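Q: Can I see a sequence and its folded structure?
A: Here is a first one.
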Amino acid sequence: MRIVIDMQGAQTVSRFRGIGRYTLNFAKALVRNRGRHEIYLALNGLFTETIEPIRFAFDELLPQENIRVFSASGPVSEINFGNKSHRQVSEFLREAFLESLNPDIIHICSLFEGYLDDAVTSIGLLGMATPVSVTFHDLIPLLNYEHYLEQNKTFLAYYNSKLAFLR
């Protein structure tokens, strides 16, 4: 089985928090226990400063050719409405890139990225049949709607767009 892991949770500002640590540790554990399965890591090329550290973190664990970088058309942060066309194009580019790796399954370690930075996450825009799994970290905005979503319509639209990918 070929497993592709979207590593953007270890590339965004989340890399300094629990999501980033989880993403790295999850991927390392999967790689260490892969048996006969192939693992590919997918990195976002817009986060250039994170690519080499991630490659280094997997240097003894995974062949470097299994760490792939996709190119996006930035900037794409959702907080800036002017980025909408770049983001939409980049979502299609990312999904096509992931499919080009011929995965049996794709795992997204953090779908709720890209509001303030250049992460690109989406599911199913190309209508491909490859199963996608997601680690869902961010229920707090749903639990505290008044604090996180009600007063920020831009963030509400962003959050709802990510939730829609999970349906």
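Q: Show me another, different protein.
A: A second, unrelated one:
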Amino acid sequence: MPKMMCLNYGDGEFVFSLSEGTPYEGLQRTSDGGWSTVARYGQKPMSKNTGQQLENITITGTWFQAKGMTNLSMLRFLQNQREPVGLTDGYGNTLGRWVIKRLQEKQDKIIDDGTALVLSFTLELEEYVNENAA
């Protein structure tokens, strides 16, 4: 089964995949070069490298009907574990460990039993670095 991206946790994984009904539409990865600007009196500011900030990944997508609600419930379950998750891209490359910073959902086209027919989501991940990392 082709995978677009995979969140690995404990004994399981959450797979983003078209065939699983869990595709994503967009991915934005933000990394920082570690450069800061230091103000100086009477002179131009000075550039100084103070170390990189943590990387961030934002995944957006739209899922449908009860399956989409189940998918979002699973992501909320992972978020509520308050533990870092492994992240693997669709090529099998390990991208390290990440924390789920925020999960936002928007439900549209609600039917009489409360099921949303269209669910848009934004998943924000932040790189996890523990105190032992260089």
